[in-house]
Amino acid sequence: MKKLSMCLAIFLLFLSGCSAGTKNNSQRVGENSLKSDWKEITASAKGSKVNFFMWGGDEGINRYIDEWVAPQLKDQYNIELKRYPMDAVEFINKLKTEKRANKKSGEMDVIWINGENFKTAKQEKLLLGPFTSKLPNFQQYVDTQSDDINYDFGFPTEGYEAPWGKVQFVFAYDSNKISNPPKSIDELQAWVKQNPGKFTYPAPPDFTGSAFIRHVLHEKSKDYNAYLSKYDEALLKGEADQVWNVLNEMKPSLWREGKSYPQSLSQLEQLYKNGEVWMTMGYDEANASNLIKTGEFPASTKTFVLDKGTLSNTHFLGIPYNAPNPDGAMTLINFLLSPSTQMKKMEIEYWGENMSLSVERLSDKDRDIVESIDRGSATISQEELSSHRIPEIGAEYVQWLERGWMENVANK
Amino acid sequence: MVKRIKSPGIITVFFVMLFSLFLLLPFVPLIIWSFTKYWPWPLLLPEKWSMDSWRYLFSASGRAGEGLFNSLIVAVLTLVGNMVLGIPAARVLAQNEFRGKMIVFSILLAPLFIPYTVSIMGMYDFAIRLDFINDYLSVAFAHLIITLPYFVATIWFQFRLIGAKYQEAAASLGASVSKIFFWIEWPLLLPAVLLGSFLVMVISFSQYLPTWIMSGGTMLTIPVVIFPFASSGNSSIVSAYSLLFFVPILVLMLVYFLLMRINSRKQFINRGEDIAIRTNKHSNQ
What is the value of pTM for the model shown? Predict the structure, then answer.
């Protein structure tokens, strides 16, 4: 019995020995990385392993990381990339707990965040620090002056996160059933009246439904730009009634007379697939094309933007404060911002999402390639998208609108 | 081995059929969904079939192999822990009388009654402190806490059935404690150990939260791999994963029946008919 317990004790010691050796002193490493120059960073990242924590609910995105990015990173930098599927809310909570327990060395090197998550992470000091200025590709190809890079849902990024991609809100419709899609909220209202039961939107606080009602605000607001600066409840209170009016007037002609709404975008898409509604929407301009490709949407599906524009936002990559391999993390993020990696991301084959780089800053050759990329039959042209782009408003306004919708539209 | 040779009544057949239909029917849409991306409501069968979901599952991104492998390692470690801790505990509880026995017993069974979330929250802090331990071990440790009550209860029951008579007889003939255990108790215990092990492994396979928390989300067992898709509305992928999830359980089930069969046959040959009938009677009670 004594022998057995001795063996067990030695075994446990052995176990603790081998794992402790691989991850210690990372806090110091992290601060050092922020001070060292790019050459040192890439040199020390060679031969290391990077853990990438990201939402994992999309086949195309997962395949893009595992089948394209990981092998390239291995070839070019000899870095091993491991993707872990996890929702942003979960890894932010994980980081919070680790911070509370004063855990110096974590597991996550790169995390995919934006909006609310980023705000929490930055305010609670869960991020490593400003690092984007170190990345050559960020300096060279990203429009560092633009608002959609410097603000994330109205919150300043200050280099704590690097832009990975941009998405824009579009409406999708079946061109066999609708020949002339509406071009404004007013026209949409008229269309809904003429075609009762053929339109609805996901109930806020669903992400997509919430974005839809912001479009109504955008069109009805006297000065939308006022919402981009500091939070002012009085401003929103004054204009919100018009938003509720539009939505309430629409209500009797919605699907099921507006008595119930789809609870999520996937439910709305299900209705569209079944032909119950003729229009759907989404915060991803290539989503319809993706779904046509997999056979889920009818091939006659097309997308459109409003004349006054649709919301667009940027999503970002960050490095946690206790990343075990910050050098590797920066090398990966820099690689993800290279033109060839970003152009691959645009192809409908994997993801189909727009690049975070500025097209004007690309070489002539790359610009030609970008223009020739097949983004799918339902995706509208880059010029049309970028000329109809409106910025996101602050997270407080978003939440206020979501609560207001419950009171003034859903429960009326 | 006494077999009743009597054909079952029509009512029995009817209920068995009804019950199996009840169990099997949910699998039909799962199988269909895993082979199509688009199956709108009024259609009886999808119009377009595709292998995409299965191809994805076994691609580098799908992580089917990795998930199965990790699930299996964790389940085996959990099972070893259960054997080492559970069998002695069950033995003491079944054969000895001591003060506070009921308290010990209820503590052992506590994870069954205490709401899951309570113990999980405690585990969270614990996990960070135990960070130096290998992920497989710490995850198996969490699974051990959850599965131990099932295992102990199963083994305890069998120990009660065996009673103490054989052991007393052997002891009076001079057999040592270990000899009594390996030669008398273990063979009689085997059916319960097999059943308990089956339960332990199946429960371990289906744990999401404890796995997630103890490993910090880095231990990719099957439930952890499936989870991101569960809320994405991608019925096809979710169906394919669910079927994959079912495979190891099916295999375990086959192994269980196979081992049971070998066990009863071995006893039959080794110990003569008389004992075999008695052990069978015990295990069937």
Answer: 0.83
